[in-house]
Please model this.
Amino acid sequence: MGINLGVPSLFSPEPRRDNHQGSGFGTLQLMGSAMRMRVARESRRKARAGIAVLAVALFSLAVFAPGSADFAHAATKKSGHSSSTGKVYRWVDNEGVVHFGDQIPPEYAPLDRQVLNQQGIAVRTEQGTVTEEERAAERQATAEKDATLAAAHRDEVLLNTYLSVEEIEVLRDRRIGLIEDEITVTTNYLQSLRENLAQLQAEASKFKPYSTDPDAEPIDEKLAKELSDTVDSIALYEKTLADTRMRQDQVVMAFEADISRFRELKSPTR
Model:
């Protein structure tokens, strides 16, 4: 019968590790793996940032390499307060050569130019001087553009308003009829004014200054004013009548143009 003295034997089986010690070792392994992944991601991010910076630098070199000495000279002049404008310009001549300067020579004044900051980066663009011929050409181009837009709008209105030439003719006749009524009313009123004027003139002929009688009395103030007002009214309505007839002619011409254009737009060969 053996005696157990409480001392483990060299030949006894190795004690089993508890579960808590095993899980701690696995956790350390996972943490190490995660850290390596973060380091790898950070390395890739820094690499991409470096590539972007390199690309910007190469782009800057490509833009400012031609004439870079001119830019440096212009910037130096600006820092030395020798510039009259306080700006550094960049412009390209008709042969594609890039120039820098704190002033624009007269021969390059018509060219557009860029205004650069201290780092040589364009901050805005200024338009070159415009000659009178260029202004005239620009005005003509604007007028032609406006005329084209107006014509297109007119065509759209014609097509959206009328279905046939007959509809345009009906509206034309109605408008002309209204204007003819105005002409009739104005003509009749003018006739009445003229008749009234004749009566006033007959009455005024008895008084000075219209009478040849040396003993005639001066014309009454009220009669004189009525005579003057009637003359002014006749002149006003004669002008109104002339303007109305002119407007009638313009309406007729406008409708004739609309009918002609409508037929063109509806033409099957268009």
Confidence is low (pLDDT under 50) at residues 1-23, 55-69, 78-83. The chain is about 65% helix and 5% strand. The CA atoms of residues 204 and 210 lie 6 Å apart.
